[in-house]
Design a protein that fits this description.
71 residues, alpha+beta, 3-stranded antiparallel β-sheet, two-stranded antiparallel sheet, 2 helices, elongated
Length: 71
């Protein structure tokens, strides 16, 4: 969706079936006109979101910090 990212946590020994059977974690993302890209940072602890508009913002969301605040 354009307003949320859904996080599926998967351990190194978990099957995809086990992963998708668990509850997901919802991360609200800022509204961006023409939101076009989302990716994890290399450490897996951050999401980067951008738009195809110029100038295009690059927004970083600290995943664990966000989830801790939303509980």
């Amino acid at each position: 969706t354009y307003t949320d990212a859904w996080l599926f946590r998967r351990g190194s020994n978990d099957s995809w079936g086990e992963t998708f059977a668990r509850p997901t974690e919802r991360i609200r993302v800022p509204a961006l006109p023409q939101a076009e890209a989302i990716a994890f940072g290399s450490g897996g602890d951050a999401l980067f979101i951008s738009s195809e508009r110029v100038p295009n913002p690059l927004i970083r969301i600290d995943v664990d910090g966000y989830l801790a605040r939303s509980e």
